[in-house]
């Protein structure tokens, strides 16, 4: 038996991460995400390709979710409540706490604002999350008598983890999304040196090499400051969790340093609620944030005020954090409509926008421009656009560093763009001499697994193997012999060399 | 609240010592593997006694040991006792002494809650064990603890209504946190504004800390995190001025806001140290005030310096370990190969059903327990195992093979791998001969080679056998001396020497 890797999502693309790995007959699903760029059946992974798909609980031993982003957890309520999977599900404590916020927010956007038929209900989300077992970092969990899993810190977002899975003698690491450099609120990814058959790694920035983060942070602060100084309004569309807190910490510190009085708003209660989670889960942030928690919790943003719709057209400068990040709908789109036509305003864009979203259109647009919202609505965009160039994903160097550190027998790339993955694959194979693949969606890759034969080893055997300074063993058997004393004498037992004491 | 041992004077240490010591401590998560020397895997599992308290397991290639100290199945604050982690241990060392003094009782109630999960293997234990587990996890203990807390709370409210204050010198964090919650609720429902003070040098740190460790708490409290509530209400109480934390009684701010009646948590439970002394002096004559103590302290002795006491006193015992009955049930489920009990338990009947061998240990005495198995477990990589070419020994019923590989000691196990030398040839190194020379077989070999010889036996002083001397006469002259562990061939003829040497090899095993 080998290791079979069925890529149901994030194969040669970014979106709906889902990899089903069968190791020595045990099937494990890593991530269960949804694609934000599609509204039809393509938004979910093609679950029917899983062998024995009439009974998922029987065919899948466990599901492991790496972090709370929708492209990693979005399809989970659908899979458990609609498709009927009832087996064990593992995620870290922060992911279990924060995933329902993301899911509920998404459901609301879909149903309440777009008027779509709902794929899963609030009830589904609650029931789904009840089945989840929360795990701590480095806690080894025995899923059944053959499967052992362990989570490692991944950076990226609060609670993100890489997962080590061992079945029998074969072992795999699935990285999820990770960051190899610490940011303002999270530490860098951290893992032990492990004996691995396979590493499945993300490759969002497979060919990007980044310089210091501080330069790019300064750039961001500069444009924001310039905008508000000129009386403009700044719209920062973000995911409610993660990036919002990081940028907010950045602005908050800057505001205090520069003694700025311009209000910073958070849209809706979602992010305020999220800040409370960040406060409780401060142990999952960076060491620096942790060390200061007793005196001042870094997520107590005292300059931050909650935003009200009536403030959209209020006079004067302000900074607003609004969801969703890629301006694909919801409140950020509503505010964007009002603010985009004015030159003094500023809209920041996340480092990565899925094709089909307004964010994606703006990335390549030349200002001033016009953007078609739907058949009869068109917006004049005259505001400034600033794309954030810092990302919570590792760059190519980070991926290479991790793969080199882990030195697995095989590497599979997911969560990236095909041409860049091809370049990285070449690099991994030529520089590290490790076989690398990057399967497309719904493709299966097979690699050999490790097997061991169990044996018993005597203490003498282990000792003689472990002690490099062996000597020929002398017994006292022939002591007093009148024959040649200096001649080494063979011992009659099978082990011919033994760690000896000093010879006579 | 720092608890101190009984020997306060002996071996007192300073803050720097404590900090220095803590720098040397490596902290672990529950069920995190710590590897010592590559060969021992050490893990901690929640014991349920307090936040962060644990039982330990040590696993080596030869076997495993579990060390179970005071454990609580369904605690009110800490994560519950993870006993499943100790299933199939070779040796379990029981060091829960709470069963020595507490009377035993148990009910057959089957309200079970889930244990903290590290083992999800379903129903591998069979029906009998399922029933036993249900009994272990019955919520009686939990409800009983809750009842005690409710009782303390209602007594406290009575005292406050009568104008008295409440003094709680209990050092157990879990109990303090639970009481804080209850007081907040009770005071709110009675619409009373009575300040609660926690006076301890570590109060502030402790309260901030407890709110950021959901991973170490019981399921009920973890559920608060998952439903978006703060873990404890004390953060809110601090904010809206219902709870105050002070490092010492003489803190200026405390003196400013002090008002009575009030509720005070402070060390030390022995009533010989800390703020409790001053407050006891102040309130001991007040018959409306209340002192809450934990059982285990000799109250009459502890209160002697404060006599005459008019203050009300409640002594309450909280769960601090397993009841004997339960520990026996537990061991039945865990099925260890050997159990060690403290000697104090000898006076009891011992385990009623001895489904497992057990012995008693006592202070300052080393106890030897033989390994369950003689050999260590060794994993041989299948690629290497396939290359092993076995041959049967002539003199022993045994197969042997030469092997070249790398022995790796890693994460508590031995592994033989091909190592870097992936292209090894099947024969490496010189051929090795071994075994004992059988005289008759050897003589036959010589005869086959057409030699003529005579044989003498050399005897020792007391007639014991020492050696055989074989004089070869044809085709040339040679002397062969056969000893137990050595054969010496002496001849001037090189060809003859090599012929005889061949004959020797012919009767030996070789690899």
TrEMBL record, chain A:
Alphabetical GO biological process terms: snRNA processing
Annotated ranges, domain Beta-Casp: 244-362
Gene3D superfamilies: 3.40.50.10890, Ribonuclease Z/Hydroxyacylglutathione hydrolase-like (3.60.15.10)
GO molecular function: hydrolase activity; RNA endonuclease activity
SUPFAM superfamilies per UniProt: Metallo-hydrolase/oxidoreductase
Any one cellular-component term (Gene Ontology): nucleus
Stored InterPro entries: Beta_Casp, INTS11-like_MBL-fold, MBL, Metallo-B-lactamas, RibonucZ/Hydroxyglut_hydro, RMMBL
Superkingdom of origin: Eukaryota
Positions of the Metallo-beta-lactamase domain: 15-232
Record-linked Pfam families: Beta-Casp, Lactamase_B_6, RMMBL
Subcellular location: Nucleus
Keywords of this entry: Hydrolase, Nucleus
Family, per entry: Belongs to the metallo-beta-lactamase superfamily. RNA-metabolizing metallo-beta-lactamase-like family. INTS11 subfamily.
Record-given protein name: Putative cleavage and polyadenylation specificity factor (CPSF subunit)
Classification of source organism: Eukaryota, Viridiplantae, Streptophyta, Embryophyta, Tracheophyta
UniProtKB/TrEMBL annotation, chain B:
Pfam families reported for this sequence: Beta-Casp (PF10996)
GO CC annotation terms, alphabetical: cytoplasm; integrator complex
Origin superkingdom: Eukaryota
Residue ranges of domain Beta-Casp in the record: 176-301
Family matches, as InterPro entries: Beta_Casp (IPR022712), Integrator_9su (IPR027074), RibonucZ/Hydroxyglut_hydro (IPR036866)
Keyword Cytoplasm: yes
Keywords assigned: Cytoplasm, Nucleus
Chief location of this protein within or outside the cell: cytoplasm
One of the GO biological process terms: snRNA 3'-end processing
Subcellular location: Cytoplasm; Nucleus
Protein name: Putative cleavage and polyadenylation specificity factor (CPSF subunit)
Record organism: Handroanthus impetiginosus
């Amino acid at each position: 038996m080998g290791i079979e890797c069925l890529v149901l999502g994030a194969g040669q693309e970014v979106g709906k991460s889902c990899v089903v790995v069968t190791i020595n007959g045990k099937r494990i699903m890593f991530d269960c995400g949804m694609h934000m760029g599609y509204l039809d059946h393509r938004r979910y992974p093609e679950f029917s390709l899983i062998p024995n798909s009439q009974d998922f609980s029987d065919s899948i031993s466990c599901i492991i979710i790496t972090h709370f982003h929708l492209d990693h957890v979005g399809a989970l309520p659908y899979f458990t409540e609609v498709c009927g999977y009832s087996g064990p599900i593992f995620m870290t404590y922060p992911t279990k706490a924060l995933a329902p916020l993301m899911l509920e927010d998404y459901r609301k956007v879909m149903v309440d604002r777009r008027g779509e038929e709902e794929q899963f209900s609030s009830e589904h989300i609650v029931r789904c999350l009840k089945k989840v077992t929360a795990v701590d970092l480095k806690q080894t969990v025995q899923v059944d008598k053959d499967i052992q899993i362990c989570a490692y810190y991944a950076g990226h977002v609060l609670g993100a983890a890489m997962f080590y899975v061992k079945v029998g003698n074969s072992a795999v690491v699935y990285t999820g999304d990770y960051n190899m450099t610490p940011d303002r609120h999270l530490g860098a990814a951290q893992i032990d040196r492990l004996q691995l058959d396979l590493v499945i790694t993300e490759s969002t920035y497979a060919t990007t090499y980044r310089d210091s983060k501080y330069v790019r942070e300064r750039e961001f602060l500069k444009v924001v400051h310039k905008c508000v100084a000129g009386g403009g309004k700044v719209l920062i569309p973000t995911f409610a969790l993660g990036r919002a807190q990081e940028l907010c910490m950045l602005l908050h510190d800057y505001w205090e340093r520069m003694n700025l009085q311009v209000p910073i708003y958070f849209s809706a209660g979602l992010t305020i609620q999220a800040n409370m989670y960040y406060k409780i889960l401060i142990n999952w942030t960076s060491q620096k944030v942790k060390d200061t928690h007793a005196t001042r919790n870094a997520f107590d943003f005292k300059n931050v005020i909650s935003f009200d719709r009536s403030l959209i057209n209020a006079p004067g400068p302000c900074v607003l954090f609004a969801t969703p990040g890629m301006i694909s709908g919801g409140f950020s789109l509503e505010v964007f409509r009002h603010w985009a036509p004015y030159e003094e305003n500023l809209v920041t864009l996340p480092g990565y926008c899925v094709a089909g979203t307004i964010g994606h259109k703006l990335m390549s647009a030349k200002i001033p421009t016009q953007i078609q919202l739907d058949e009869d609505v068109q917006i004049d965009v005259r505001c400034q656009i600033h794309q954030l160039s810092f990302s919570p994903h590792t760059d190519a160097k980070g991926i290479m560093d991790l793969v080199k550190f882990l030195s697995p027998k095989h590497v599979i790339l997911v969560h990236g763009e095909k041409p860049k993955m091809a370049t990285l694959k070449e690099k991994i194979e030529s520089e590290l001499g490790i076989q690398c693949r990057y399967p497309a969606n719904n493709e299966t890759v097979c690699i050999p697994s490790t097997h061991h034969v169990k044996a018993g080893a005597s203490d003498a055997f282990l000792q003689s193997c472990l002690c490099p300074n062996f000597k020929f063993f002398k017994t006292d058997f022939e002591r007093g012999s009148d024959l040649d004393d200096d001649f080494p004498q063979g011992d009659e037992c099978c082990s011919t060399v033994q760690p000896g004491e000093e010879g006579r | 609240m720092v608890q101190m041992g009984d020997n306060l004077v002996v071996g007192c240490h300073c803050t720097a010592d404590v900090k220095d010591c803590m720098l040397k401590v490596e902290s672990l998560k529950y069920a995190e593997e710590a590897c010592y020397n590559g060969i021992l895997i050490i893990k901690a599992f929640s014991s349920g006694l307090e936040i962060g308290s644990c039982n330990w397991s040590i696993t080596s290639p030869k076997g495993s040991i579990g060390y179970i100290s005071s454990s609580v199945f369904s605690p009110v604050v800490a994560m519950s006792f993870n006993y499943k982690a100790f299933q199939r241990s070779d040796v379990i060392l029981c060091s829960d002494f709470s069963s020595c003094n507490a009377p035993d009782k148990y009910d057959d109630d089957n309200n079970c809650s889930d244990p903290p999960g590290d083992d999800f293997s379903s129903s591998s234990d069979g029906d009998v064990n399922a029933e036993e587990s249900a009994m272990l996890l019955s919520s009686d203990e939990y409800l009983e603890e809750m009842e005690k807390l409710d009782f303390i709370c209602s007594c406290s409210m009575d005292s406050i209504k009568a104008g008295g204050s409440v003094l709680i010198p209990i050092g157990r964090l879990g109990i303090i946190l639970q009481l804080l919650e209850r007081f907040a609720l009770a005071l709110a429902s009675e619409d009373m504004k009575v300040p609660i003070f926690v006076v301890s040098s570590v109060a502030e740190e402790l309260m901030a800390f407890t709110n950021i460790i959901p991973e170490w708490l019981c399921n009920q409290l973890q559920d608060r995190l998952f439903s978006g509530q703060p873990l404890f209400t004390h953060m809110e109480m601090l904010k809206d001025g219902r709870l105050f934390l002070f490092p010492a009684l003489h803190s200026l701010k405390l003196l400013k806001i002090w008002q009575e009646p009030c509720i005070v948590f402070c060390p030390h439970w022995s009533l010989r140290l800390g703020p409790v002394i001053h407050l006891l002096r102040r309130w001991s004559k007040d018959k409306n005030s209340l002192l809450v103590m934990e059982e285990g302290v000799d109250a009459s002795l502890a209160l002697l310096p404060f006599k005459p006491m008019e203050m009300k006193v409640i002594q309450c015992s909280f769960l601090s370990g397993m009841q004997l009955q339960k520990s026996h049930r537990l061991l039945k489920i865990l099925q260890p190969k050997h159990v060690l009990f403290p000697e104090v338990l000898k006076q009891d009947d011992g385990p009623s059903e001895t489904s497992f061998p057990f012995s008693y240990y006592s202070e300052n005495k080393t106890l030897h327990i033989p390994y369950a198995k003689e050999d260590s477990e060794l994993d041989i990589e299948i690629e290497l195992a396939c290359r092993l070419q076995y041959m049967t020994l002539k003199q022993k019923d045994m197969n042997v093979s030469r092997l070249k590989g790398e022995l790796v000691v890693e994460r508590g196990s031995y592994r033989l791998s091909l190592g870097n030398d992936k292209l090894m040839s099947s024969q490496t190194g010189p051929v090795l001969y071994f075994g004992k020379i059988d005289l008759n077989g050897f003589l036959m070999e010589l005869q086959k080679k057409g030699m003529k010889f005579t044989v003498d036996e050399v005897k020792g002083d007391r007639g014991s056998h020492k050696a055989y001397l074989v004089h070869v006469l044809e085709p040339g002259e040679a002397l062969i001396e056969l000893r137990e562990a050595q054969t010496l061939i002496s001849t001037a003829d090189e060809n003859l020497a090599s012929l005889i040497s061949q004959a020797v090899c012919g009767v030996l095993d070789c690899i």
